[in-house]
Amino acid sequence: MKLIPRNPDKGVYAATPDYLHALEVHQPERFLYISGTMGLDPDGAPGTTLAEQLDLVWNNIRAILASAGMTVDNVVRTTSYLRDPGFADANQNARVAALNGRIIPTTTIVAQTLLEAWLVEIEVIAAA
Fold first, then answer.
1. How many angstroms separate the Cα of 46 from the Cα of each of 26, 91, 105?
2. Which of these, 34, 31, 94, 41, lies nearest to 64 by C-alpha position?
3. Fewer CB within 10 Å, N or C, the chain?
4. What are the two backbone dihedrals, phi and then psi, of residue 12, each rounded to the nearest 5 degrees?
5. Contact 32, 68 (CB under 8 A)
6. CA 128, CA 117: separation in Å to the nearest integer?
7. What is the pLDDT of residue 19?
């Protein structure tokens, strides 16, 4: 599989350092679409802080990826749903750290979550 970042310098606004406009994926054998995953522990309890929930959500994503024989290196896109716009920087930093500095296309949406205690939810597309 070959990944080609696409950030054109004409006709579109500049991408930020933590963001790609597009990622071209050549010859993947399979895709994994991960549902919105929350910062819940194995018993279903949410972390008490945003930092705890971001840690839990990425641990959960890693476990789901591993069940498909993948790692965070296979992640080609994320969508984050945040309860509060003030969570954007922490979410960005957690994503960049979880992906070991690898930059991918991503979207962040501020939305009311189903439960007030759920601060962040992240869905992922991975390819292998």
1. 37, 16, 27
2. 34
3. N
4. -150, 155
5. yes
6. 34
7. 87
Q: What 3 state SS string does the chain have? A: CEEEEECCCCCCCCCCCCCCCEEEEECCCCEEEEEEEECECCCCCECCCHHHHHHHHHHHHHHHHHHCCCCHHHEEEEEEEECCHHHHHHHHHHHHHHCCCCCCCEEEEECCCCCCCCCEEEEEEEEC
- What are φ and ψ of residue 30, in 5° steps? -160, 160
Taking only the tens place, the pLDDT of each residue in 73-108 is 999 999 999 999 999 999 999 999 999 999 999 999
**Overall size of the chain counted in residues:** 128
| Cβ-Cβ contacts under 8 Å for 63 (sequence gap 6 or more) | none
pTM of the model: 0.94
Share of the chain above pLDDT 90, in %: 94
